[in-house]
Amino acid sequence: MIFDRKYTILENRYISGITWLLRVKAPQLKDAPAGSFAMIKSSCDHTYDPMMRRAFAIADVQGDEILLFYDVYGKGTAVLTEKKEGEQINILAPLGKNFFPENYDHYILVGGGIGFAGLSLFMRRLKEKGKSFRAVYGVRRKEQLSMLQWIKENGFEEDVLVYTEDGSYGEKGLVTKDLKGLINENKNTALAVCGPKGMMRAVMEVARQTNTPAYLSLESKMACGFGICIGCVVKDTEKDSYVRVCYEGPVFDGYKIQF
Q1: Which stretches of the chain score pLDDT less than 50?
Q2: Residue 23 in 3-state DSSP?
Q3: What is the distance between the alpha carbons of residues 228 and 225, in angstroms, rounded to a whole number?
Q4: H or E segment at 2?
Q5: DSSP assigned state of 98
Q6: Which one of 38, 116, 157, 204 has the fewest beta carbons within 10 angstroms of its own beta carbon?
Q7: Which residues contact 46 (CB under 8 A, 6 or more apart)?
Q8: pLDDT in the model for residue 45
Q9: Which residues neighbour 203 within 8 Å (Cβ) at sequence distance 6 or greater?
Q10: What is the CA radius of gyration of the chain?
């Protein structure tokens, strides 16, 4: 069930780089599927500036609270940083129709930058179910590792390999550096990927070379979040037609779409 209602902000604070953490008391969303997202209204009641909601992955569910990590790029996210603890915020969630499959023996989660927030709830669900997985978290430099504290606080430190392009933290290099080796360690492995398009294309190259199933959680600018505006389409190469990231997605078979 999708809820469109106000929730109480428990925390809204700067983390690092351009990233903030929004924690909201939302018992109605405790069963939000891994990979689902929320559309948040950053403007105040009775105003339309910014006009549209902003889309964010539901990064974690902790009891009756949800966590969302967001990067500040424009006016909508800048206004969101002004929200205070105890204030109400309007959220439409959980959204999305297609999520990560759970029928593989082993998973490799590959997240780039803020895209790691599109995988973190899936990682929690896998661990709760005792599924085998490894996660790869890559950024350009240490300051962009905005989810590092969350990883440590929630007991995932041994499960996550961290890569920085400049070598300022973890392994120096791209997320694809050791990916072939990780894939070959386990049979019946699937990739779950979220991040910049360039990174996802590079991961898909490795997937094709190793004949590994790969599922991409796509990021896109959205106006509605539930398939009405047709503003977030990508091409389905198998059907030779277009599909909506918000409705037919946000997770797609990486072999079947052009992004």
Answers
A1: none
A2: strand
A3: 8
A4: none
A5: B
A6: 157
A7: none
A8: 64
A9: 110, 175, 176, 179, 191, 193, 214, 254
A10: 18
